[in-house]
Amino acid sequence: MSTVEAPVGAAPLRLRAFRQRRRGVVWTRRVLLYGAILVAWQLLALKEGPFFLPTLDAIAFDGVPAVFTQGYAGTFAESLQQLAIGLVICYAVAIPLGMLIGLSRIADRFVMPFADAFFITPTAALLPLVILVVGTGLSFRVFVVVLFAFYYPLVNTAAGVRYNVAKYRELSDSLCLSGPAKLWKIVLPASAPYVVVGVRLGLGIAVQGMIVAELWVAVGTGSLLINLGAQRRLPEFFALTGMVIVLSLALTELVRAYERRLFARHQLEVRLDATQG
Amino acid sequence: MRRRAKAVDVVATVAAFALFLGVWHVLASSGSYPFIPSISQTLTTLVTEIANGGLLRPAGETLQVAGLGLLIAAVLGIVVGVVTGVSRAWSQVLDPLVNAAYSTPIAVMIPILGIYVGLELRGKLFIVVTFCVFVIIMNTAAGIRQVDPGLVEMARSLEMSRWKVYRTVILPGAMPQVLTGLRIATGRAVQGVLVAELLLNVSGLGYYLVIAGSSFDTPRLVAGTLFVTLLAFVVLFVVGRLERRALRWKAFEAR
């Protein structure tokens, strides 16, 4: 009996065409809305004058080159160094402490009331006190970055370890693994996605911390922003601000992309375990 | 077994607080750290400042700005959140903007905010609103998207009007997420108002802390910081209770 079969791959092709069409519609809408925002900006800037809002071409052709030729980029790089030092200290303390909290109920009850109290305290309110303790130098800015970012890697790591200890208890018992082996081979790799989420959340907040600290003591990028704003050198101000925002988003997206890969691998491993089991 | 675990919890928490107070006492009485006031001095200052209104007056000012900003952010955030939650087209267009704005360090705009919104109330409100509106938008949209489509289908099959479907199915279904967003936004509003009061226009509790810090009046500074923590705790506690109360029907449904 002969049957007429649909060509292999016809359905996926139609689906792909449909998806491409839909993506095209989405991007058309986005371009229209974002374009409308930029046009509105340009018209407002032309109407109100450069003392109120710089035109987009002034930001692109005056502001952006000035960032690189007048040493702003160097100052920004120094701010990033402080950010990096703060983040390294923050992660180096928060992640192991989070693991300890996840593993030990006593450590949890010992540390978490302080961590929670610290979390609900608006971090900006601590700045006058921090200045008295560590001064206004590099240590202040690094300390503020740590303060802003600390809670997220701590809590996420603790949650991940706590969840995976409970989840893989039977597996590690059946493999007769010792405590450290259980931790090293099962719990920590399984908790990695949680840690990375904490790292990402901390990163976003840390950039905010870096800016707040520098605005407070008027140094580095914060001082530049204050001066450019006060002198109404708005094209340069917006170019520098754009750089800070783009960097903040790029760093966060970079970690988010890694996080997605990690989660996808994690889910694949779970599926493989299920099919093999 | 559970009673023993609970006892261990209590002992660990009490020991942690005892250790904290002990370290504070040792550091304050050693004389090597003149910026650390003694516990008794701090508590006396805290009680006196609360009693004479030195802390409550600025706190009232701070909470007023935070509350007004939160109200504006809630109206704006819920409207935009409902639109992006219901409409796929709007969600695809607005979501990247909302996510980017949420991750943006708003503080970078402080040096020029005065040009656009002034340094007074409008400037502070702008910071508070931008601190909390995006988290409300994201939570509202997520809440709307997770409403059971079966319930919506059932409501439509009962020939309910579109408005009635929203009022009786979609909005109540999204309520837990919306309220969670509002609770998180409340914390962010307190954060935002303090950033504004310290960096934009020194006023309210920000003024209290700046004056105490710049005059090296450490008992007032530490008492003020403790008061801010207590205030944030009380605000979040009250909002949490309101949230639980508003969602009593959900807990009943779950049971």
What layout of secondary structure does this protein have?
The complex is a heterodimer of chains A (277) and B (255).
Chain A: H1 10-48, H2 56-69, H3 72-103, H4 105-120, H5 127-134, H6 138-149, H7 151-167, H8 169-174, H9 179-217, H10 220-230, H11 234-276
Helix pairs in contact in A: 2-11, 3-4, 3-6, 3-7, 3-9, 5-6, 6-9, 7-9, 9-10, 9-11, 10-11
Chain B: H1 2-30, H2 39-51, H3 56-86, H4 88-103, H5 110-117, H6 121-145, H7 149-157, H8 162-200, H9 204-214, H10 218-246, H11 248-254
Q: Name the shape of chain B in a single word.
A: globular
Which chains make the largest contact? A-B, 49 and 53 residues
Oligomer: heterodimer
What name goes with the CATH superfamily of the largest domain in chain B?
MetI-like
Give the number of helices of chain B: 11
DSSP strand content of chain A: under 5%
- In CATH, the topology of the largest domain in chain A is named MetI-like fold
- Secondary-structure element pattern of chain A, one letter each: HHHHHHHHHHH
The CATH architecture of the largest domain in chain A can be given as Orthogonal Bundle
CATH homology group of the largest domain in chain A: MetI-like
Mean pLDDT of chain A: 85
How far do the termini of chain A sit from each other? 41 Å
For the largest beta-sheet of chain A, the strand count, sense and barrel status come to: none
Beta percentage of chain B is under 5%
- Helix- and strand-based class of chain B? mainly alpha
The radius of gyration over CA of chain A amounts to 25 Å
- How many domains of chain B? The number is 2
Query: What percent of residues of chain A adopt helix (DSSP H or I)?
Result: over 70%
Under CATH, the topology of the largest domain in chain B is which? Answer: MetI-like fold
* CATH architecture name of the largest domain in chain B: Orthogonal Bundle
Tell me the radius of gyration of chain B: 23 Å
